[in-house]
TrEMBL record:
All copies of domain ABC transporter, residue ranges: 8-247
InterPro entries to which the protein is assigned, alphabetical: AAA+_ATPase (IPR003593), ABC_AA/LPS_Transport (IPR051120), ABC_transporter-like_ATP-bd (IPR003439), ABC_transporter-like_CS (IPR017871), BCA_ABC_TP_C (IPR032823), P-loop_NTPase (IPR027417)
Annotated organism of origin: Nonomuraea turkmeniaca
Pfam families tied to this protein: ABC_tran, BCA_ABC_TP_C
Keywords: ATP-binding, Nucleotide-binding, Transport
Name by which UniProt lists this protein: ABC transporter ATP-binding protein
Length: 247
């Protein structure tokens, strides 16, 4: 695939909440095999855009194309099944399940009832342990998720997303609320996962993280992209400075 080919593309995507136009005709193409960053001032529509791509909310207009197929009105589950995994701004895990159980319920094939009955697929357990090891939290597999630190919960959420073997991973504020040492660990994990062939789209307010980690940065303002390019170019773009400074 060429450098500019894109498996995820949106065309004229729009969504209003009451009178607020949160996403306004956004046409965006991700770079395949790259770490794409999505930045923009507060309220510029980044989270809404994420939710539109992953089927959590439906657009008023426009389309989401994944690998050339229109997935605009597909359910979040179907979209995840097609190869798009995502994490949430406020980490989403099951607090009363153990770490390992959280990993197993992340796989659709393992039903909660079977899990509670002690029926576990050996292959899935091995895969779960593999991802927990990659995240460095394998020693916590029997702990209840609610007893993990917030940073460890974020790693668990990412590990659970990886159980579905997504080709494209969307991270919603991975650095939010985590300490600097863990941010470094998340950056190096994302780099490794990217080197293995996964494409990323990362929404993040931590500019150092975005500029240091991303290959391609898309800047939103008022619900649509106003600039994009490598971090060095975006950083110098007068339109971006204007959007952030609000002048
Ligand atoms: N469920 C909702 N109901 C009403 N308004 C909403 C809703 N979700 C988002 N909005 C509004 O839409 C606009 C875009 O919000 P969104 O959360 O997508 O922006 P954002 O760029 O992710 O912001 P932040 O960087 O602060 O997380 C904002 O004005 C917000 O108040």
């Amino acid at each position: 695939m060429s450098d500019t080919a894109s498996s995820l593309r949106t065309e004229g995507l729009s969504k209003s909440f009451g009178g607020v136009l949160a996403v306004d005709g956004a046409t965006v193409e991700l770079r395949d095999g790259k770490i794409n960053g999505l930045i923009g001032p507060n309220g510029s529509g980044k989270t809404t855009f994420f939710n539109l791509i992953t089927g959590m909310i439906k657009p008023d207009a426009g389309r989401v194309l994944y690998r050339g197929r229109d997935i605009t009105r597909h359910s979040p589950h179907r979209i995840a099944h097609a190869g798009l995994g995502r994490t949430f701004q406020l980490c989403r895990i099951f607090p009363r399940l153990t770490v390992l159980e959280n990993m197993l319920v992340a796989v659709r094939r393992t039903r909660l009832r079977e899990l509670l009955a002690g029926l576990r697929d050996k292959g899935e357990v091995e895969r779960a342990r593999h991802w927990l090891r990659r995240m460095g939290i394998e020693h916590l597999e029997d702990a209840e998720a609610r007893d993990l630190s917030y940073g460890q919960q974020k790693l668990l959420e990412l590990a659970a997303v990886l159980m579905a073997e997504p080709e494209l991973v969307l991270l919603d504020e991975p650095a939010g609320g985590v300490n600097p040492a863990l941010i470094d660990r998340i950056v190096s994990l994302v780099r490794d996962l990217n080197a293995e062939g996964r494409t990323f789209l990362v929404v993040e307010h931590n500019m150092d993280m975005v500029m240091g980690m991303c290959d391609h940065v898309i800047v939103f303002d008022r619900g649509a992209p106003i600039a994009e390019g490598p971090p060095s170019a975006v950083r110098e773009d007068p339109k971006v400075l204007e959007a952030y400074l609000g002048v």
